[in-house]
Amino acid sequence: DVVMTQSPLSLPVPLGQPASISCRSSQSLVRGGGGIYLSWLHQRAGQPPRRLINDVSKRDSGVPDRFSGSGSDSNFTLRISRVEAEDVGVYYCMQFTHWPHTFGQGTNLEIK
Amino acid sequence: EVQLVESGGDLVQPGGSLRLSCVGSGFTFRVFWMNWVRQVPGKGLEWVANISPDGSMKRCVDSLRGRCSVSRDNAGNSLFLDLNTLRAEDTAIYYCMAWGASAYWGQGTRVTVSS
Description:
The complex is a heterodimer.
Chain A: E1 4-7, E2 10-13, E3 19-25, E4 38-43, E5 50-54, E6 58-59, E7 67-72, E8 75-80, E9 89-95, E10 102-103, E11 107-111
Parallel strand pairs in A: 2-11
Antiparallel strand pairs in A: 1-3, 3-8, 4-5, 4-9, 5-6, 7-8, 9-10, 9-11
Chain B: E1 3-7, E2 11-12, E3 18-25, E4 33-39, E5 45-51, E6 58-60, E7 68-73, E8 78-83, E9 92-99, E10 103-105, E11 109-113
Parallel strand pairs in B: 2-11
Antiparallel strand pairs in B: 1-3, 3-8, 4-5, 4-9, 5-6, 7-8, 9-10, 9-11
């Protein structure tokens, strides 16, 4: 199985400051044809996850533009330009290039 | 409004069976890959199974191989997960999830395997 490794696992950030989460995969996520199937999810306490970013860098509908995704091959990053109170929770990267699809361990973002 | 509503979660003894169901509304169910993802409360996420829009492709993770079957009924906007020979380690919240140009999640249904 493809192992997704996130860092950091805990991320205290002051309001209004930027935040960055790294995600590395144990194998390349490039599929034949060049597609890279890497997404970012956000989960608040007691809620199901919500997808923020699809296909490395495409923001889902309704996701604020302070969220951005980047990366290639096996190295990916989620950035929040200015953290707001509603951004607290756990962030997961997820790959669906290979079966079984796998998730990172999660990064817990809290307000410092 | 988009909704995915799971049901069927229960307390079941080891070795028992369950059928989880999920009904979707507010979106075009038949064009989405449908998925089951589980989460032990307080822990991370694990993909369980998925099925293609027309139902022709389906698979379960290896840890559930032989104990898991995923199916769908597009006429009824429904997704199913049949689990058998359940083990304590199958205890989790099971989420139904639609994946495509958009992604939708249900609130989850709790499965507890315990004697």
